[in-house]
């Protein structure tokens, strides 16, 4: 693992809300902390309502984590583009986040501890 990145179990229960619905709820979320950035919560895929997510064409590369795939959230009234990402085959030292998704929190998506 890169020395400036830590992954640990996130305390408590975490949820993702978008479009008036709870898309994820987990007591098994992971918190990734990287120097210079705020913490990012990664939700196990089994704790996410994947029917509300659609694979996006967007991809990105991080030299520490690897190649990311993106997902859009489909709600009743809108599609929130590239609102979540996953490292399907993360680099060595980041394997803990495989099978997990992180979400862009903001005006349309809430990621919060309950």
UniProtKB/TrEMBL annotation:
It holds the Pfam family NTP_transf_9. Residues 15-104 form the DUF427 domain. It comes from Boseongicola aestuarii. InterPro entries: DUF427, DUF427_sf. This is DUF427 domain-containing protein. The lineage of its organism: Bacteria, Pseudomonadati, Pseudomonadota, Alphaproteobacteria, Rhodobacterales.
